[in-house]
## 1
Amino acid sequence: ETTDVVKLFTQVFNDFKMIHPDFTFNLDNDIEGNPIVQIYRNHLEQVLIILLDNAVKYSVDRKEIHLSASSTSQAVEFAVQDFGEGISEESAKQVFNRFYRVDKARSRDKGGNGLGLSIAQRLIEEYGGTISLESSVGHGSIFRIQLPIMKHVKKDQ
Ligand code: ATP
């Protein structure tokens, strides 16, 4: 199964804009043409939803989320950046583990079981991709997904 990832990314972006009108969403797409990525559409959609849900959940004060899409000849990269509470270096090592939650007491009222990111990582790695995190407490987080490109269809074809 292959997916037009830019189209999917834009759709998820539009859905979140509609569902969370209190947030400012930006989309920066630097991808030219249509890179074809071998991933089941629903799986990529689920990963994007997990990252965006988290960005919304953990941004209490500054409600702003930046999405970006870029590509090299080998891979596409999607980034989800928030300006929320951020994650310490110590916790960042563990957020992709099943059932891990940074602050159990505080996170409890936000729902969730600490499964989202472990599912996201498992799915992305299943397709030969990577998922990574860059974060700073009090400043926010950036989650990046990279997926290998199968082929490239030119825009005017
Ligand atoms: P769910 O099972 O519903 O996904 P969850 O959000 O707790 O619940 P994960 O998505 O796996 O589970 O996230 C694990 C933990 O990582 C969270 O509990 C939270 O502490 C932290 N975290 C994840 N994303 C962010 C973010 N964007 N900003 C700050 N902390 C985050």
## 2
Amino acid sequence: MVIILLISPPLDKQLELVYIGLGSNLGFPCQQLQRAILSLSQLQSTELMQVANFYQSLPFAGKIQPLFVNTVVLLKTQLNPWHLLKQLQKIEYQQARKRPYRWSARTLDLDILLYGKRVINSSRLTIPHPQIAKRAFVLYPLYDITPDLVIPIYGKVQRLLMGCSKQQLFHVPMGLSCNETKY
Ligand code: AMP
């Protein structure tokens, strides 16, 4: 496995459409997302295509934590999925991401939600992202960008949204998105 990673080139031959999920609930979350979007737009062999609305949501698993702000961006990239994951982790660490325990509050979380139509189940990467079909804060921004999106394995984003109707989500008006207090 390690050998494959070492010899696999970071660039695929063709460009792929890739959806990235962004989330933050520490240290000015909206600003964290905006900074991360700028970094994503500057990745090698990558073009930022679209940014969804920002949404506020309650912390998952009933945790007592600040509210999350989430969005999704659409990239066109030649980076292969594993190299892209490495770049995302670099951006997380640049923005002081710590991992003290599972589900802890975080300055920035970046997930590869979809990589073209590919289905990947490796030790480091599961695509489509395993939580993609269950979280309103992922499905709504995906719907913003591509209303007729069909997610491999799980189906139409429009139908999946109906199963999340009980999850509370608040749209963050664009002009107010960075008028926030530090957590
Ligand atoms: P997190 O705590 O959400 O930052 O999880 C990071 C871990 O999830 C990393 O060790 C990744 O290797 C793994 N992972 C598996 N699938 C994905 C994915 N689709 N996007 C991002 N990280 C993933």
